[in-house]
Design goal:
By secondary structure, the chain is an all-alpha fold. It contains five helices and no strands.
C-alpha cells in the first residue's frame, strides 16, 4: 500500500499524468474531425446504396407482377438456388464426416494437423456457401410472392404507370 501512496504523491507521476492528458487532448483534437468526416461519408454512401437497392427491388417486383412467365422463370431460379444450397450442405457434411481419412491418405499421417485444418476450412466454405444460397433463394421467393400479391390485387395494365405504389403496401387495401 505504501508503494501506491508513494507513487501517487511523487511529482513525476503527476507530471506524467498531466503530460499524457495534454497529449491525448491534442491528439483527439487532430483525429476527431477526420473520423467524423469519414463516418459521415460512409453514412451517406450507405443511404444512397440502400435507396438504390430499394428502387431496384421495387422495379423487380413491378416487372414480375406484369409478366407471369418471368415469375415462373424466377421461381425456377429460386429452386435452382435451393438445389445448390442442398448440394453445398451435403458436401460440407461429407467433408466433415469423411474428409479426415481422405486428406490423411493423400498427405500422410505426418501432416495430420495440416489435414485437419484443410478439412475444416473446406467444410466451413461449403457450409457458408450453402447458407448464402439459401438466403438468396429466400430473398428471391419474397420478391416473387410480393409480385404475385401485387399482380392479383391490382389491374396489371396500370402497374407501370403507378409511381405512388410501394411494394411493401398491402395491395388488397387499395382495391
Amino acid at each position: 500500500m505504501n508503494d501506491v501512496s508513494d507513487a501517487l504523491l511523487s511529482p513525476i507521476w503527476w507530471f506524467s499524468v498531466v503530460g499524457a492528458g495534454i497529449l491525448v487532448n491534442l491528439l483527439s483534437a487532430y483525429v476527431k474531425p477526420r473520423i467524423d468526416s469519414y463516418f459521415s461519408s460512409l453514412s451517406s454512401w450507405w443511404m444512397r446504396r440502400s435507396a438504390l437497392q430499394t428502387k431496384e427491388r421495387n422495379d423487380r417486383v413491378i416487372r414480375l407482377a406484369v409478366d407471369r412467365y418471368e415469375q415462373i422463370i424466377q421461381s425456377l431460379a429460386a429452386l435452382r438456388l435451393l438445389l445448390w444450397a442442398a448440394l453445398s450442405l451435403l458436401c460440407g457434411i461429407f467433408v466433415i464426416l469423411f474428409g479426415q481419412g481422405l486428406v490423411e491418405g493423400v498427405l500422410g499421417e505426418s501432416l495430420s494437423e495440416v489435414a485437419e485444418i484443410i478439412r475444416n476450412a473446406v467444410a466451413a466454405a461449403c457450409l457458408f456457401i450453402s447458407f448464402l444460397t439459401v438466403r438468396a433463394s429466400v430473398k428471391l421467393r419474397r420478391v416473387i410472392e410480393e409480385a404475385r400479391l401485387y399482380g392479383n390485387g391490382r389491374n396489371t395494365k396500370n402497374i407501370q404507370q403507378s409511381e405512388a405504389w410501394a411494394p411493401n403496401q398491402d395491395p388488397q387495401a387499395d382495391a
